[in-house]
Amino acid sequence: MEAYAMAGHLIRRLHQQSTQVFGQHAREAGFDVTSVQFAAMDAIRSHPGIDQAGVAALIAYDRATIGGVIDRLIGKGWVARSISARDRRAREVRLTPGGEAVFAALLPLVRALQDEILGPLSPGERAAFLSLARKALAVDPVQDA
Amino acid sequence: MEAYAMAGHLIRRLHQQSTQVFGQHAREAGFDVTSVQFAAMDAIRSHPGIDQAGVAALIAYDRATIGGVIDRLIGKGWVARSISARDRRAREVRLTPGGEAVFAALLPLVRALQDEILGPLSPGERAAFLSLARKALAVDPVQDA
DNA sequence: AGGAATTAATAGCTATACATATCATTTCCG
DNA sequence: CGGAAATGATATGTATAGCTATTAATTCCT
Fold first, then answer.
1. Is B107 on the interface with A (CB under 8 A)?
2. The architecture CATH gives domain A15-136
3. Given an 8 Å threshold on Cβ–Cβ distance, is B8 in contact with A22?
4. Residue A35 in contact with partner chain B when CB distance is under 8 A
5. Which residues pair with A51 in a beta bridge?
6. Contact list, A133 vs chain B (CB under 8 Å)
7. Helix (H, G, I), strand (E, B), or coil: what is residue B92?
8. Which residues pair with residue A92 across a beta bridge?
9. What residue of B is the nearest CA neighbor of A12?
10. Which of A53, A116, A122, B111 is spaced 20 to 30 A from B25 at the CA atom?
11. Which pLDDT tens digit goes with each residue over B77-104?
12. CA/C1' separation A4–D30 (Å)
């Protein structure tokens, strides 16, 4: 049957390719950051003071996973965590000034590598792929949650 | 910028969706197997006596990862590993009779869940998506390596 | 008010995923 | 032939990724 010609396998390989492109560009630019960490920083930056569950919901993570991601971001000094005054179970997170600076430096880099993720596709094909991907996830085209 | 509207993020979520659909169906059918393990079994079944590096190359794994995957398949009694007579560094793997039986039982299940991975896409859209995905990976449409 | 249900994190467990280093073996080449 | 390079596995370390259970705190409901 050749499972490696099937949907799940193709998607797994796209994920590999995407992760590798991101990691390579980030490393070359001198940043030790993963695509997951960048996405978390983006969500935090857009919603300062959001709690961890909120971050998880925004970028579709498991809540148990997000804690470790944020731990590492705190370890780098890019994120600060504090106990919410409103709800003492919750941990509010926000970017530190250093985190803001790193994010600002990464942003153009990340924008620039987007096309590379989809490799040999033409601009029209890339748009078609992204549109189909959004539909396959049953997600609004551009959703600012 | 909302990184979670970008290519890498969409692909990651598709990967999540794909993994979850596979896991859910496999579990409901009473099998404790991941999509990665299934892909490895498929490659091994198509190439009995292949070595681990060969399996890794076929399905685009990291060589360091494949050992653990095969360890778990051996633990379930579905794969047998032996030292190659031709090259004593290499470990030849093949499905056991039990592994063959499990694979045969999984195969129709896996075929049936393919469409679900791409959720709300129409048949034509699914075909278009898969075609674009293959092109994005610079892979032959159907390649039996 | 007070117990029940819910929710936010965390901890522990399993499974990818990949980089690097190491070891054993084989192949390549002068 | 014999040392160098290459190759197949394994070991180690880091980073997702998600499940379940647990703890702490809040909210809901009677």
1. yes
2. Orthogonal Bundle (1.10)
3. yes
4. yes
5. A92
6. 7, 10-11, 14, 129
7. strand
8. A51, A82
9. B15
10. A53
11. 999 999 999 999 999 999 999 999 999 9
12. 57
Report the candidate in B29, B6, B4, B34 with the shortest Cα–Cα distance to residue B19. Answer: B34
Using the C1' atom of nucleotide C11, identify the protein residue whose alpha carbon is closest: A64
Specify the pLDDT at position A1: 56
Q: Which long-range contacts (CB under 8 A, 24 or more apart) does A55-61 make?
A: A55/A93, A57/A145, A58/A145, A58/B4, A59/B3, A59/B4, A59/B9, A60/B4, A60/B13, A60/B16, A61/A36
pLDDT score of B119: 81
Instruction: Check CB contact under 8 Å for A121 and B135.
Output: yes
Distance A67 CA to D27 C1' (A): 24
Each residue's pLDDT expressed in tens, for chain A with a length of 145 residues: 566 668 999 999 999 999 999 999 999 999 999 999 999 999 999 999 999 999 999 999 999 999 999 999 999 999 999 999 999 999 999 999 999 999 999 999 999 999 899 988 999 999 999 999 999 987 644 443 3
What is the model's pLDDT at position A2? 67
Domain ranges of chain B: 15-136
Distance A66 CA to C11 C1' (A): 14
Chain B residues within 8 A of A33 when measuring between CB atoms: none
